[in-house]
TrEMBL record:
Alphabetical keyword list: Activator, DNA-binding, Transcription, Transcription regulation
A Pfam family this chain is assigned to: LysR_substrate
Coiled-coil ranges from the UniProt annotation: none
Membership in a protein family: Belongs to the LysR transcriptional regulatory family.
Protein name: LysR family transcriptional regulator
Keyword Transcription in record: yes
Length: 332
């Protein structure tokens, strides 16, 4: 008996639920009918796909390998159907984009608002993820598009360098300068890409003077910071490690400690006088931002439209200063 689409969908439902009875409920099938589908699939393949027990079912080694193939086959089939069915001018379907916290803060509102306005049939999902998880979510098909701070080679992904962001030292209001709109005493006036004043500059080696609260070691931002520190043999006084960007901002604003974030993450708070920030110099510390997608899985019409929209929004925000950053090599 040949393997068919219905059998693949039944198999994935059982693998996801760990129970034939629960999968039958999800699929609105009678349990005997679902069990027969799995039996026919195992006979067609000549292997056992599940280990059965009184607790439920667990994919065998063969089942685990077959699961990844089944997901890719159904994903490609769905894309093929969508490409034939949808008009380019009226795309529809699910589009999932994975954004780090700092990027989500900048991009979510304009991206969601404009997607709804242009393409009401597109079901946009914006998912906040640590950058370390975005490549695996792309490869598994859980998201279609992602933004990361590192580009991997030979990873099955395509990376486009779209933005460079300056990192700044962040502290409570007045901690790094005399207040909003004025540079720190003795420092040269520094401005973000949007023309908003920063509280002067702080040399990289002088960061050791400030008590720090930073993301933990596995966080992409922390890995970037640590790379600069190792290269220039600087050791910081780290009081605590907190991964969430909003909490890092709140802790800095409360004067608990200083932190290091992209200027884009805090420029609104600096402008409003809720934080002070100083550019890091000697050397300047910046991070690249990459737009990434699968190198082997084609984007749907809807995902391609959202991808183009994302590029439009990034370019517009950099041009009008709402995203204080520089255009990356892929966008020049």
């Amino acid at each position: 008996m040949p393997v068919d689409v219905r059998g693949l969908r039944c198999f994935l439902a059982v693998a996801a639920s760990g129970s034939i009875s629960r999968a039958a409920e999800v699929l609105h099938l009678a349990q005997p009918a679902l069990s027969l589908q799995i039996k026919h699939l195992e006979e067609a393949l000549g292997v056992a796909l599940f280990t059965r027990s009184h607790k439920g079912v667990v994919p065998t080694a063969a089942g685990q390998r077959f699961e990844s193939h089944a997901r890719e086959i159904l994903k490609r089939l769905d894309l093929a159907c969508e490409d034939v069915r949808d008009l380019v001018t009226d795309p529809e379907g699910r589009v999932a984009i994975g954004l780090p916290q700092s990027m989500a803060k900048i991009l979510t509102v304009p991206l969601v608002r404009e997607t709804i306005r242009r393409w009401p049939k597109v079901r946009l999902q914006v998912i906040e993820l640590s950058t370390g998880y975005i490549p695996s979510h792309l490869l598994s098909g859980h998201i279609d598009i992602g933004l990361t701070f590192q580009a991997g080679s030979g990873s099955g992904l395509l990376f486009d360098h779209v933005v460079d962001e300056d990192l700044v030292l962040v502290a409570a209001p007045g901690r790094l300068g005399a207040g909003r709109g004025r540079a720190a005493p003795g420092a040269h006036g520094a401005h973000g890409a949007s023309g908003e004043p920063l509280a002067g500059t702080v040399r990289l080696r002088d960061l050791r003077r400030y008590p720090m609260i930073l993301p933990a070691g596995e966080h992409g931002l922390r890995a970037l910071i640590d790379g600069y520190l190792r290269t220039h043999e600087v050791e910081l006084d780290v009081l605590a490690e907190v991964n969430a960007i909003p909490e890092l901002i709140a802790l800095a604003a409360a004067g608990v400690g200083c932190t290091i974030l992209s200027y884009a993450s805090v420029h609104a708070e600096v402008r409003n006088g809720w934080l002070s920030a100083a550019r890091i110099s000697h050397p300047a510390v910046s991070r690249p931002v990459y737009l990434c997608r699968s190198a082997t899985m084609p984007l749907s019409i809807a995902a391609s439209a959202v991808l183009d929209l994302l590029g439009e929004i990034v370019a517009a925000q950099i041009a009008d200063g709402s995203w204080p950053a520089r255009v990356g090599s892929a966008a020049r």
